[in-house]
Amino acid sequence: MPETTQATALTPYMDGYAHGQERRTDLEFKSAENAFIFDPVTEQPKVNPHDDTLTVALRVASHCRDWSQQEYTGSADQDTYFEGCRAGINDRPPTKSWRR
Questions:
Q1: What is the pLDDT of residues 68-77, one digit of tens each?
Q2: How many domains does the chain have?
Q3: pLDDT at 27
Q4: Alpha-carbon dihedral sign for residues 83, 95, 48, 22
């Protein structure tokens, strides 16, 4: 009898991160300089007067918030899905604080 393997359940953060990674290559989520759009320390949008980073950061945040609210209506983890999505699009490694 063949063995069946069961997929490991993703945490809300990692599920959001995976979604963000899938969307990362969308041109609407790239800054003109292909820079990180969120500061890795403060997690605030980077503001660079020489490119469209702030506009892209707002687009990413809006997409991730809409996605987490639509996909996980009523979930207490909506903010966690949102943060994972945002980090995934920004192409930052997952943060240890969100691993459960």
A1: 999 999 899 9
A2: 1
A3: 76
A4: negative
